[in-house]
User: Which sequence fits this backbone?
């Protein structure tokens, strides 16, 4: 009896076990170590269940990735494919510049990072079912960087309609930019291609090429199948040229139709490839056309690469400090070409997160400044990128309220005697007051003088000094020109002296990003100086020395000649 | 001693049962908008099948037609006024764009192989707004605009339906890879023209219909039997939890109407 119960129990147990194991096979293996590390380091943003809904997620934009749909932005694989393990490992290691995702190279061991890779893969069943490895983007046929390639790339940047989102100058200010959302319905901005240090997946030409070919999953960035498939670079250029012609000759008409037909045929073959019904000859033609498409894509990658400086500029400290240049002439106006002769000083900006309401997701990277002065006045040119030109408050259905773009340039009222002396609190002063120039996109040609003793404690100065201002917004970039006398009669104003380092700081508001009041991007204190006038002695002494040397040499020669005779 | 043993065995069985339940829990399927049978659909010849037809109506206050703001390419996109199509209510409260389908059909007719599976882009509007696509069939996207679009389908990499492909103005037709499995409906969007939206459902059998302007749907050649009849609508949701059961007789016709409200 006892034996039979025992045997029966064992049988029942085994039965349940077998059934449960067979069911459990669908559930991917869970890496305990990976789970532990994930829950400790990743879940706060990405959520315990990987849905991208951790406790911190709400404040972040771009939002933390939702791992349950298997959509990964940064991949070495083709569109619609899952990433490789190495792709995931690299993102965890390096992080995603311009987003809240940090790199974990120094805080997690390589082993931990690999375990996290296997763990996050358990959030999406597609990883388990995928038997064939994801198809990688081929980097063959890379075209080396050259002026010529950049020029061709620029043509295809237009042909592929990149400007629709990224804008004519690449500043992410295309006409589609304001309405872009990701697949989860969150606001998503196209990359500012001139600030490639913020590219989530890196800024090498190869990185750019991979994003272009593979698209950015879950975002508006699509994959491309050529804008002129089957046409060579030259043919594509010719096609565009003919297309834009108002009147074509018969010969041109014929040429255009021929190109159009070739392109149509190539696209037909592409469709057959998609359906898997192409024959060998068609496959051959497709491979040839793909090669040309890759060539075009490398040109675009080179062009995008050319839009940004080699490296992120150094902040305006030390040798990069903002030095206002002396000129004897009248100061240049906003459009004067002489501004181009100066290198701008770069002031990086960060979200203001000290005082409510805060800005956790800044959209403005930096402000760049140039300056000239003469004996009585100083002129500044403030330049910053903003994807949208918001000149008034607006209620938008999809993206909530937008506000007016603005900038405030901050100085202390009293310049500290020496650079180490304490300055006013960097957030619009405290006990020590600050003096501000505030400009708003709603009044493009004026600045207002403010005095502030705290970020929420600013007053418009009763006496508004004589400050000239002019601004322009072009292709996703503001340029604000401001001119003021070096000295004023107003005690609340900053008085500027040659050779003295003057503290300077910035606040910038992107109205489309919800910036208003304390919600803004800011800098800490930097400084600028009116570069002392170069001494005129340099124009006297060197020629004098030269003349003297010549005299001595002539004399010496005469002496030698006389002695010889 | 005997009691202890019994308790042990009982515990052992309980553990086994627990494992089973746990595994079953884990297996729980993600919530689809439509219900797709797990069994593979079997194609057979249907002789003297039945017909299910009906009308889907809307109940509640009909919101005012919302005109879409056209902020791009006005020469191409702004010629004809466009309206939000998430809730299209016609005469007699007829509700357009509702998918009505059989949830649990296991076998029946094949898809109509001659039917064109096309999504048109004309004057920066997707047409149709809701469409069903057989699993394994490539969708052809047309571009009848002198403008560049991008066809962005919010699908999954698992089914090959995560697609975001640019279609320049030079490309009149573009095939999209066929779905590997049933899914959806999933959203289709053109990001370049943010107002352009549509829905596609990748379906495993042909007993799916989308209601027309009059709210009408028809499912034909249904093999006789009992079926769960489901619906889905963009803003009115689905009846996955309480489908209507219909009995189809050979050669018979079943009438089944639905009245839908906006999902809270």
Assistant:
């Amino acid at each position: 009896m006892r034996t039979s119960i025992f045997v029966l129990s064992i049988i029942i147990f085994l039965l349940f076990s077998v059934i449960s194991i067979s069911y459990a096979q669908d559930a991917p293996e869970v890496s305990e170590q990976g789970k532990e590390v994930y829950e400790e380091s990743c879940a706060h943003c990405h959520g315990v269940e990987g849905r991208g809904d951790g406790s911190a997620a709400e404040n972040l934009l771009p939002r933390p990735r939702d791992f349950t749909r298997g959509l990964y932005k940064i991949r070495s694989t083709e569109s619609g494919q899952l990433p490789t393990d190495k792709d995931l490992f690299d993102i965890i290691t390096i992080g995603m510049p311009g987003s809240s995702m940090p790199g974990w190279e120094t805080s997690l061991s390589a082993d931990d990072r690999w375990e996290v890779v296997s763990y996050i893969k358990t959030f999406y069943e597609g990883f388990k079912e995928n038997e064939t490895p994801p198809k990688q983007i081929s980097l063959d046929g890379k075209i080396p960087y050259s002026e010529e390639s950049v020029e061709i790339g620029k043509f295809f940047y237009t042909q592929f309609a990149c400007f629709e989102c990224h804008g004519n100058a690449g500043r992410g200010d295309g006409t589609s930019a304001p309405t872009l959302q990701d697949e989860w319905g969150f606001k998503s901005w196209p990359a500012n291609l001139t600030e490639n240090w913020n590219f989530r997946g890196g800024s090498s030409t190869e990185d750019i090429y991979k994003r272009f070919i593979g698209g950015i999953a879950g975002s508006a960035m699509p994959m491309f199948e050529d804008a002129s498939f089957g046409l060579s670079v030259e043919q594509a250029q010719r096609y565009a040229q003919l297309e834009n012609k108002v009147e074509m000759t018969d010969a041109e008409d014929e040429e255009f139709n021929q190109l159009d037909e070739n392109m149509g045929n190539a696209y037909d073959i592409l469709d057959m490839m998609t359906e898997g019904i192409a024959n060998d000859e068609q496959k051959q033609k497709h491979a040839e056309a793909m090669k040309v498409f890759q060539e075009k894509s490398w040109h675009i990658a080179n062009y995008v690469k050319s839009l940004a400086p080699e490296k992120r500029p150094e902040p305006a400290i030390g040798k990069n400090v903002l030095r206002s240049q002396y000129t004897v002439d009248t100061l240049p106006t906003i459009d004067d070409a002489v501004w181009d002769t100066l290198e701008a000083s770069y002031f990086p900006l960060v979200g203001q997160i000290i005082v409510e309401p805060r800005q956790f997701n800044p959209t403005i990277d930096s402000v760049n400044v140039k300056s000239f002065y003469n004996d009585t006045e100083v002129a500044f040119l403030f330049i910053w990128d903003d994807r949208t030109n918001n000149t008034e408050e607006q209620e938008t259905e999809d993206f909530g309220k937008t506000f007016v773009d603005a900038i405030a340039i901050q100085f202390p009222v009293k310049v500290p005697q020496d650079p180490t002396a304490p300055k006013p609190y960097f957030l619009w002063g405290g006990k020590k007051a600050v003096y501000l120039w505030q400009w708003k996109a709603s009044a493009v040609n004026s600045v207002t003088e403010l005095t502030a003793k705290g970020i929420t404690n600013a007053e418009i100065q009763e006496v508004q000094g004589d400050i000239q201002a002019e601004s322009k917004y072009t292709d996703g970039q503001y340029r604000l020109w401001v001119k003021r006398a070096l000295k004023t009669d107003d005690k609340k104003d900053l008085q500027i002296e040659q050779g003295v380092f003057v503290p300077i700081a910035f606040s910038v508001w992107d109205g489309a990003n919800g910036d208003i009041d304390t919600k803004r991007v800011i800098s800490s204190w930097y400084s600028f100086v009116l570069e002392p006038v170069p001494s005129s002695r340099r124009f006297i002494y060197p020629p004098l020395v030269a003349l003297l040397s010549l005299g001595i040499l002539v004399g010496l020669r005469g002496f030698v000649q006389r002695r010889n005779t | 001693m005997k009691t202890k043993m019994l308790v042990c065995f009982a515990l052992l069985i309980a553990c086994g049962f627990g494992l089973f339940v746990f595994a079953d829990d884990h297996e729980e399927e993600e919530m689809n908008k439509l219900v797709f049978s797990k069994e593979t659909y079997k194609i057979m010849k249907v002789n003297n099948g039945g017909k299910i037809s009906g009308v889907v109506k809307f109940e509640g206050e009909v919101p005012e037609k919302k005109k879409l703001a056209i902020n791009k390419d006005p020469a191409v996109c702004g010629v004809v006024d466009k309206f939000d199509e998430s809730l299209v209510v016609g005469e007699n409260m007829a509700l357009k764009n509702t998918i009505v389908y059989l949830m649990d059909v296991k076998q029946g007719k094949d898809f109509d192989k001659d039917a064109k599976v096309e999504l048109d882009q004309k004057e920066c509007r997707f047409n149709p707004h809701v469409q069903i696509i057989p699993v394994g069939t490539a969708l052809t996207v047309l571009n009848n605009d002198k403008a560049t679009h991008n066809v962005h389908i919010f699908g999954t990499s698992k089914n090959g339906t995560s697609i975001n492909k640019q279609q320049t103005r030079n490309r009149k037709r573009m095939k999209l890879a066929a779905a590997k499995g049933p899914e959806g409906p999933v959203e289709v969007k053109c990001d370049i023209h943010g107002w352009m939206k549509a829905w596609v459902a990748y379906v495993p059998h042909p007993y799916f219909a989308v209601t027309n302007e009059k709210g009408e749907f028809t499912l034909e050649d249904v093999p006789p039997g009992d079926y769960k009849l489901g619906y889905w609508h963009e803003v009115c949701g689905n009846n996955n939890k309480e489908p209507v059961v219909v009995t189809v007789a050979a050669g018979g016709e079943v009438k089944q109407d639905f009245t839908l409200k906006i999902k809270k």
Chain A touches chain B through 62 residues (CB under 8 Å).
